[in-house]
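Forum: Protein Structure Q&A
Topic: Joint prediction for protein chains with partners

I've read a bunch of threads here and the consensus seems to be that you should model interacting components together rather than docking separate models afterwards. I'd like to see that in practice. Below is the full input, 827 residues plus whatever partners are listed. Could one of the regulars post the assembled result?
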Amino acid sequence: METLEGILAEHPFSRDLPKSYIELLLGCASNVRFDAGQFIFREGEEANQFYLIRKGKIALQVFAPEQGPLTILTLGEGEVLGWSWLFPPYRWKFDAQAMELTRAIAFDAKCLRTKCETDHDLGYELLKRFAYLVEQRLEATRLQLLNVYEIRR
Amino acid sequence: MKSAAEELTNAQPHLMVPQRFRVWHTERETHDTFTLKLEPIDVADEFTFKAGQFNMVYVFGVGEVPISISGDPAKPETLVHTTRAVGAVTDALCKLRRGTVVGIRGPFGSGWPVAEAAGRDLVIVAGGIGLAPLRPVLYAIVSNREHYRKVALLYGTRTPDDILYQKELERWRSRFDLQVEVTVDRAPATWRGTVGVVTALIPRAAFDPERAVAMLCGPEVMMRFAVRDLLDRGVPPGSVYVSLERNMKCAVAFCGHCQFGPTFICKDGPVFRYDRIASLLGIREM
Amino acid sequence: MPSTRESAILLRQHFQQLLDALVSRGYRLIGPRVRDAAIVYDELTSAADLPIGWTDEQDGGRYRLKRRSDEALFGYVVGPHSWKQFLHPPLARLWQADRESDSFRITSGAQEAFKAAFIGVRSCDLHAIAVQDKVFLGSQYVDSAYQSRRERAFIVAVNCGQAGGTCFCVSMKTGPKATAGFDLALTEVLEPSRHCFVVEVGSELGGEILSQVPHEAATQADQDTAETIVAETARQMGRALDITDIKELLYRNYEHPRWDNVAARCLTCANCTMVCPTCFCTTVEDVTDLKGEHAERWQKWDSCFTTSFSYIHGGSIRATPKSRYRQWMTHKLATWIDQFGTSGCVGCGRCITWCPVAIDITEEVRAIRDSERSNHESTKERDEHGDP
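Posted by a regular:
Agreed with the consensus. Here's the joint model:
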């Protein structure tokens, strides 16, 4: 059975972190699983965790009154779910639903925020990684926004 | 005795004057995209072409447009065109019935480097209707699977309703020796597949950048971003091929419309090796 | 019979017989005549139709006819027309077809070409014809309609006796002397004692035609006279264009601010593309009758200066005038070389004369070249004197 430490050492998000930081992260980490159809979080709820996905698929969704739930992004193995825990008011902006059996490492937000305030170097490392993530998502979102497949007549 | 049409051109009858083909099958792919299967009337029983080439398709009384050939090069008895309705001629093509006769001039243009890809990994990135000119490559791969190493098809459309060739994609996806990833820009929650830009599929596609050949077709913006992600992953620019599109009238490099820098898309393209036109792609309003 | 490259003297009083010899062989005469205050190319019935005693004054955006003090037949240069309107017509039907229930049948092809004798083709225009030959005959596709018109053309070239105000054939190495591509080449000699033409035979057919016209062998002195006239023309060029590394110069300056400068003046009126003897762009138009029973495909001159030229999927690739002027000029002087092995420009000056705002292609090249020189010099200065 894999240890949490082993999993963190392999996950793309954390694998090149120094051992001491992995230790710090471990202190806030736990193993979680979601069954197919289960909601990980809903829009408006408190953002108390973020997740490193080990296996499975999660859909980030928005509920539109006339259209029902719309999926705007799916995330899978090796990806990261959730950054609303970083900024007040620490609330989720979207729904996240597991599309199949999904295993992940969950990190307690309050625990991690406290450690980051104490150890700014750890905070810097985490923020660098999340900033990169945001940049990737923003670029992808812009491409999606461009609606490149549409033909104007 | 030669007909007037035959006498018109000396050595290139298929290229200057439309040859007649009859529609024997039509199929609706999506709300605005249809596939036509054609058989020749005027010329020999076969229409030989290379994957990546296109024809000028003529609807009597309406006009003529360039459409890529999306059938199997190994089955030249049937000519296949998948068309999206974006103007007067393609609207008419998408409404054609069995038995109607259209005019075909072609085939024109450069093809995908299918032979050169033998012994290498293949990454095929398609966006929207861009899967149509790449389908002949998939047919070639599937019929000669042992000639290629790892093969990854990455396909993106706007919504699940816009996915082309669904049955074939499912068939290919179910093979053990092909990676087929389909993604959409947005979807209702009932969609169980991936949602996100097609470029996001590149980092995790199964191929070795150093021995890969990449073939891309889709909106130019999508191709620019996808090429960048492929280069970031280590694919050499000389191993990347894109299919470009410009206004086209004659398809034989006489009318001047399809020029892209010093190239004629109809004659030097539409398939280009990326490193040969990279600088042109970077100039606005070229 | 005079053979190729031999020279002869044709007297002015026998010039009409040259035209008669061509007519008797079934040629229609096409040549310069005065119409609408310009010298254009049109059908000739006799030598009297030529612009005898006329000359032209040309400059940027300016064209005027003026009377000469002599009776020269060819005492002017080139006007708004070029020979491309006969070899590559503005309107040409490609084929016709009729509907047959669910099908159709192509009933006929391009119109039959006629035998045309071009009278008075200048060296720049000879080169322009050769440039278009490469476009339509020189690649993997052959335009058979162009080919049949081309094969039926007889060319009487004329070596210019004076240069035009916007001419720069010397810079483009396309004149003023006609060196190839003609059946006969004439240099008009106007002396107090005689008015004649030094005739050079350029082909077997040319020799045959000349043999039917009264002529004498040209002496060395005659040939020297012709050379002197041409040399004098070469000295009078109204413009100059430095073609050193012109392709590389334009290829590395696609984003030069000069393009914005010219775009502010260019009206995208497309005059330059219509008068340019090498511009070949066309569009294809499919038309039907009202009942939808009969269809025709026509080829028509087009211009890269229109917004629809590059239209695709709801927008034009070259939406701004800047991008369209840049396309025209870089095609003419640079990408043409990669496409066809020659420059697209023959230095005839028509684009300068007929531009309503006097945009001058030689000036645009000079501006870009000079800006590179001054950049280079100021960089050199900084290097020599250290950082400012």
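DSSP finds 13 helices and 16 strands in chain C.
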